[in-house]
Amino acid sequence: MTSRFDHVENRKGTNSMKWDAVDKLYEGEDLWPMWVADMDFSAPPEVIKAIQEEVGRGIFGYPVRSASVDSAVQSWLKKRLSWEVDADELVYTSGVVPAISQIINRFTEPGDKVIIQPPVYYPFFNVVTNQDRQLIENPLVFDGCHYRMDLEHLRSVIDHKTKILLLCSPHNPVGRVWTEEELQKLAEICIEHDLLVISDEIHCDIIFKGHQHIPTATLSEEMKQRTITCMAPSKTFNLAGLQTSYTIISNPALRRKFKNHLSREFLNMFNSIGAVAMEAAYNEGEAWLEEFLSYLQENVQFVKTYIEEHMPKIKVIQPEGTYLLWLDCSDLAMTAQERKKWLTAQAKLALSNGIVFGKEGEPFERMNLACSRDSVKEGLERLKKAYDSLK
Ligand SMILES: Cc1ncc(COP(=O)(O)O)c(C=O)c1O
């Protein structure tokens, strides 16, 4: 059966980072891009139509926050996550990483400590160190096929300077969807040590069958009061270029401080087209998302089967969510740098080299599967050719 996701537009020559910057960044030629986290798919037609209508009006002046956008976000959270949020609790931001950066800026002082759990989305490192805060790492524990958080180690690294835990939930790049039990245990420590939790939940809509995303703020009243949740429709509906995101801050004092900070820094404006896209995506994009999720899970299965059959030295870490697949390449016995060169020169393939997610990621590669099955096949065939040449 064919799917709308089998058909993709040619993105080359469209100022796409994924397609047009790849050769330069990876120092190769005609590389097949399965790296940066955006999709090769068009956004849902309902979103495109809403944007076209907005563009048709031809006026792009300053927008004002609208109740209809609030209500689209609220209904989406309720429908998908059973999370009831007041419109007042929403604070719009122009990107999740910029929001995290501003939260750290506002709620810590230089020298304060912020904890991250590598291997993790690489801006988590610089978003802390660029502001002269101390980066504290609590690496995930990997048992050869599964990742978990190291709560004992976490306790041991917290001291009076530790102010924030920056959580990635679901976790990019390892594909974990944290269970309620895991999150509750983590929450206990955060409460005991009075940590503010930034919960980056940008991947929360991309969850596989058998798993459930639990928003950190919904774990308990205490967590609700100490969590700032960062979300966006950008990963879910391929809208990253519109730089539209939001935070959910239930604690009124934290919210007031953050809003005042954004105003003082002149960061309280938002993209009018992004708001239109977000409203349409949340109101009308659910069927598209469900179709995407089925297609994506088939992509994952396809890659697993292919790799198991043809490239047994590479191990697929079973993802529970996200469209990013984490590949354990330890048995190839190459350093991250050697593997990157090999992939570029021999496979003509651009994956995200695991080392960028922290030293724990050294033997891994991350593969973006938000693309057509044909595109997945192309990437795998290129990889196999290089793999076969190793023998
Ligand atoms: C965990 C995580 N947070 C944030 C982002 C980027 O968010 P934004 O483009 O809104 O800054 C990504 C993109 O891949 C991500 O994986």
TrEMBL record:
Gene Ontology terms for molecular function: transaminase activity
Q: Using the record for this protein, list the coiled-coil segments as residue ranges, or answer none.
A: none
The segment(s) forming the Aminotransferase class I/classII large domain are 38-383
Swiss-Prot/TrEMBL cofactor(s): pyridoxal 5'-phosphate
UniProt keyword list? Aminotransferase, Lyase, Pyridoxal phosphate, Transferase
> What does the record give as EC number?
4.4.1.13
What Pfam families does the record tag this protein with?
Aminotran_1_2 (PF00155)
Keyword Cytoplasm appears in the UniProt entry: no
Give the similarity note.
Answer: Belongs to the class-II pyridoxal-phosphate-dependent aminotransferase family. MalY/PatB cystathionine beta-lyase subfamily.
Q: What is this protein called?
A: cysteine-S-conjugate beta-lyase
Organism field: Alkalihalobacterium chitinilyticum
